[in-house]
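Hey, resending since the last one bounced:
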Amino acid sequence: MKLEDAAQQMNFSEIPPGYYLLGLISAFENRFQAMADSAMREISWKQFFLIICVNLCKKPPTIGELSEIVGSSHQNVKQLLLKLEKKEFITFRPDEKDKRKQRIHLTDHCMEFCEKNDEMSIDIMKNMFNGIPEKDIKTTIRTIMEIEKNLRGLTEEGVTK
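The structure tokens again:
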């Protein structure tokens, strides 16, 4: 069933915009992950997202730091990283100052994979955002960052007081 057909079978008129937006984000994430998983083949979208985040860090992160960045549990991130380590995309190395901490480093194999898939990634991004003005994308980013800030506040306060 096509997305348009599924949308026609639902009544969105009674749904508050915030609920609708959250549903759209969740459904989009599922569709994007399925598309990215099939495009990458060698690794999953979630694994690739971790690689992107490690690459953007100013210094190699710890599992805890990476978990905070991606908004996932330490256990989930560690499982993904162990799979990447097995495929020789990352290595764990002791922190120079605190040997108990393990820092995540990208391997040459990982960098070659990224380079090999760079053009495909650029094409996907270009097509995905085709026809959407940059100002609209920036507005969406600001909106999601505000929602994230509010979510963090809920988490810190405890959802049920």
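The first helix runs from residue 3 to 8.

Sorry for the duplicate.
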